[in-house]
Amino acid sequence: MEAETPKCRRVGILGYGRLGRFLASQLLSVGPPHGVTLAFVWTRRGGPMDGIPPELHLKDLEGLQHTGVDLVVEVAHPCVTQEHGEEILQHADLMLGSPTVLADPDTEQRLRGAALRGGHTLYVPHGALWGCDDIQRMDHNGTLAALKVTMTKAPESFRLQGWLQERLVAAVASGGRVVLYEGPLRPLCPLAPNNVNTMAAAAVAAPSLGFDGVQACLVADPSVPDCHVVDIEVLGRGSCGRALRVTSSRRNPATTGAVTGDATKWSFWSSMLACRGHGGCVQLC
Ligand SMILES: NC(=O)c1ccc[n+]([C@@H]2O[C@H](COP(=O)([O-])OP(=O)(O)OC[C@H]3O[C@@H](n4cnc5c(N)ncnc54)[C@H](O)[C@@H]3O)[C@@H](O)[C@H]2O)c1
C-alpha cells in the first residue's frame, strides 16, 4: 500500500517587501518539497505583485476565510495584525513578522484570547535574535536575571515615529554615532514599529522580564551603512560575581536603507517551515 502524501500547508503572505517577496518566491519555487505551498499574497491598496500569478493575488482580507489558508505570515507592519489579527486567528495560524504589536497590552490580550478560542497558533519568529532558544530556556528555568538588546543601524535603515524621528534627524545632522534610545522596551515599540522586532521577540522569549523588563538600546551609526548589528547581553541569576553572563554580537549584511538584513530572510523561512500548528497558544518559531 502506498504511503499517504502529507497535505501541503497553504501559506498566505501579508506584505510584499523584502521579506514578503523572498518568502513568496521560496514558496513558489521550493515550497511543496518542504510541505508548504503559496495560498495568496496580499498588499495594501492592491500594490504591485510582480512574479505572483494573478489567481494568487488576494484583493481583500475579508476574503481570507475562503482561501483555505492554514498559515498567514504578516511581513508588512504591526498595524495589519492590530486590525486583522483576531479575525485571522479564527481561521488559521498566524506568524507575526512584526511582534512589536504585542507591546500594546490590549492587543496582546486580544490576540492571545483569539488564539485560544480559535485553536490556532500565534507564532513569533526568532528573526534576528541570536540565542532565542537559550534565553527562553533560562526564562523557563527561572535563571534569567536581565536581558539587554542593542541594535545599531545606519540612519537610513530607521522608520521612526514621533520624538524619536526628531532625534534621528538631529543625529543625522551631527554625522556621528548617536544613542537614540536607552531604557525599557515597551515605550520604544510604537516609536520604532519596524526596527525593534528583534527586541520584541526577546520580550516574548523571556516573559518573566517582558516588554517592561527587557532593556533596549537603539543606535544610529553612519559607519555601518551595509549591516545591522544586534548585541545581546544576558545575565543569569547568581551571587558573589558567579552569575552566568553571555554576550553575543551579530553583524548581518544589509542593503542600505533596508529594515531587514540579508540573513534574516533565511531565518524567517526556517521559522515559517516550523509553523506546523501547535494549537491555541503563542509559540516561538
Ligand atoms: N522579527 C524580526 O526580527 C524582524 C526582522 C526583520 C524585519 N521584521 C519586520 O518584518 C516586516 C517586513 O519587513 P520587510 O523587510 O519586508 O519590510 P519592507 O519595508 O521591505 O516591506 C514592507 C511591506 O509592507 C507594506 N506595508 C508597510 N506599511 C504597511 C501598512 N501600514 N499596511 C499594510 N502594508 C504595509 C509595504 O508596502 C511593503 O510591501 C517589518 O515590520 C519588519 O520590521 C522583523
Give a structural overview.
By secondary structure, this protein is α/β, with parallel strands linked by helices. The chain folds into 2 domains: 140 residues, NAD(P)-binding Rossmann-like Domain (Rossmann fold, 3-Layer(aba) Sandwich); 129 residues, Dihydrodipicolinate Reductase, domain 2 (2-Layer Sandwich). It is 32% helix and 24% strand. The strands form 2 sheets. Strands 2-1-3-4-5-11 form a 6-stranded parallel beta sheet, sandwiched between helices. It has a 5-stranded mixed beta sheet with strand order 7-8-6-9-10. It is globular and about 60 Å long. The mean pLDDT is 95. The site of nicotinamide-adenine-dinucleotide has 26 residues, from helix 1, helix 2 and helix 6.
